[in-house]
Design goal:
Largest sheet: 5 strands, antiparallel
Length: 195
């Protein structure tokens, strides 16, 4: 199993060198299809272009290939590298995300029960110290310890879609529509995958 903290320490400076902020580093797919997923964004727009994904993917591939050649590969087995944007219904992985997305609805799952429940849904009202503030449906204003959050992501709402509209539609007339074939997985916002 790969050490995610070690991978994050390796990947974060590479993302910063490309002018990007790291959102998440995650190993997915288990043993059948191991995938190192890297989510990043531009700090000024909270968006990521396909060119950003491609540049970061090439940069990370070069670094990881060099480590492998030196016998210091941080991942012991074959895997795919996936670089993508966080997407509209993005994961909330950093304390600052709860301030950045204040006013938007989120679903938060805790590692252990708090007040008899593990799942909290409602509008984010920010953070205070190491607490996440949420106006939970049916419960009201609630404080959740950031350290207890197992996973959290924004809920897809019209308000969120409006807030995350692309900054530019330049080139939109050049996009070709692809027909999905049976068995194809749905695509994410932007994603570059390398084997």
């Amino acid at each position: 199993m790969a050490d995610l903290a070690q991978l994050t320490e390796l990947i974060e400076p590479e993302a910063k060198a490309e002018g990007l902020e790291l959102v998440r580093v995650k190993m997915m797919g288990g043993t059948s299809d191991p995938t190192l997923q890297i989510m990043a964004e531009r700090p000024d727009t909270r968006q990521l272009t396909l060119d950003d994904c491609a540049r970061l993917s090439r940069r990370l591939s070069a670094v990881l290939d060099e480590l492998e050649a030196e016998g210091r590969d941080p991942i012991e087995h074959a895997y795919r590298l996936e670089v993508s944007s966080p997407g509209i219904d993005r994961p909330l992985t950093r304390l600052k995300d709860y301030d950045d997305w204040k006013g938007h609805e989120a679903r938060i799952v805790l590692a252990e029960k708090l007040e008899g429940r593990k799942v909290f849904s409602g509008d984010l009202t920010g953070s205070e110290g190491d607490q996440v503030l949420v106006d939970v449906q049916g419960l009201g204003p609630t404080r959740l310890p950031f350290a207890l959050i197992q996973s959290a992501k924004l809920a897809m709402t019209d308000r969120l879609i409006k807030a995350t509209a692309p900054l530019s539609a330049e080139g939109a007339d050049k996009i070709e529509e692809e027909t999905e074939r049976p068995g194809d997985e749905p695509s994410e916002d932007f994603k570059v995958v390398e084997d």
